[in-house]
Design brief:
Blueprint lengths: L2 H23 L6 H16 L6 H15 L10
Helix pairs in contact: 1-2, 1-3, 2-3
C-alpha cells in the first residue's frame, strides 16, 4: 500500500472517529457500520505498522469500555 493510501486511511478514519465522538457526546446513535469501518481502518493501519490516529484510538477504547460496562438504559428504569 502506498504512503498516499495510508495517509488517506488515517485521514478518513480520523474524520469517522470525530463523527462517532460527536455521537457519543450528544448520546446519539452510533451505527454498527461506523464501528466496523473504524475497526477495519485500525486493523489495516496495524498491518502496515502505522500508528493509529489518537482520536481513533480514543474512540475505539471508549467503545470497548461501553461494551464491557454498558450504562443502564432509560427504558430499564422504573
Amino acid at each position: 500500500m502506498t504512503a498516499d493510501k495510508i495517509a488517506q486511511v488515517q485521514r478518513l478514519s480520523s474524520a469517522l472517529a470525530a463523527r462517532v465522538r460527536y455521537a457519543q457526546m450528544v448520546r446519539g446513535p452510533i451505527l454498527p457500520a461506523q464501528v466496523d469501518a473504524l475497526l477495519a481502518a485500525a486493523m489495516l493501519l496495524q498491518e502496515h505498522e502505522v500508528p493509529w490516529p489518537s482520536l481513533v484510538e480514543q474512540v475505539l477504547h471508549d467503545l470497548a469500555q461501553d461494551l464491557e460496562h454498558p450504562e443502564p438504559s432509560a427504558a430499564a428504569e422504573p
